[in-house]
Specification:
It is a single chain. This protein is an alpha+beta fold. It contains five helices and eight strands. An eight-stranded mixed sheet has the order 1-2-3-4-5-6-8-7, with helices on both faces. Strand 5, helix 3 and strand 6 form a beta-alpha-beta unit. It starts with a strand and ends with a helix.
Length: 182
């Protein structure tokens, strides 16, 4: 899978990307002062999972490396995951390396590319996402894109208060008409 934007290349990971992925995941600033959550898989386990998803048929989960188009540097990863969801839904997730956080335009460019891809599939009715209640950047991005936000049902099950956002096909294309690709 390959998606090219003005500044980025979103593509399937290859085995050669493993060291760069592990490096940004092991950066002490990546997880912040509290460190990685105990339940989170380590970088090697995640990377192996992403390679397995790449080879699945049919493909239900898309997890792509996000690379700077000019330099080829890995900036993070992003994906659309359908496994475990109704057939007409996908979950969008964006993860940026510590040095890339706070770059709103970067996150927006990634989200736009993935949403265009997602809603290019006529069977997909909605894209959803989850974040912690305190993640102002993600909730602001979701609102900007036209998503509706609601508290996560049963937040105790995920170990924190959270927010779920939903963006349906009609809302996305209405937003896109007013915000053409730059």
């Amino acid at each position: 899978m390959l998606i090219v934007t003005r500044r980025l290349v979103l593509r399937d990971f290859t085995e050669a990307d493993g060291p760069a992925f592990a490096a940004y995941r092991h950066d002490p600033d990546f997880h912040g002062p509290s460190g990685a959550p105990e339940a989170e898989p380590d970088a090697a386990t995640l990377f192996t999972l992403f390679l397995a998803w790449r080879d699945e048929i049919p493909r239900r989960n898309l997890q792509l490396g996000v690379f700077d188009r000019a330099t080829g540097r890995l900036l993070g990863c992003a994906g659309l995951r359908q496994a475990g969801l109704p057939e007409d839904r996908s979950e969008l997730g964006i993860e940026l390396a510590a040095g890339e956080r706070g770059r709103h335009r970067l996150a927006l460019e990634i989200a736009e590319a993935l949403l265009d891809h997602a809603f290019g599939d006529p069977a997909l009715a909605a894209v959803v996402g989850r974040t912690t209640a305190g993640n102002v950047r993600v909730t602001r991005l979701a609102r900007w894109l036209g998503a509706t936000l609601a508290p996560l049902p049963n937040p105790g099950a995920v170990g924190h208060d959270g927010v779920m956002w939903t963006l349906d096909r009609a809302s996305w294309w209405a937003w896109r008409r007013n915000h053409p690709v730059r």
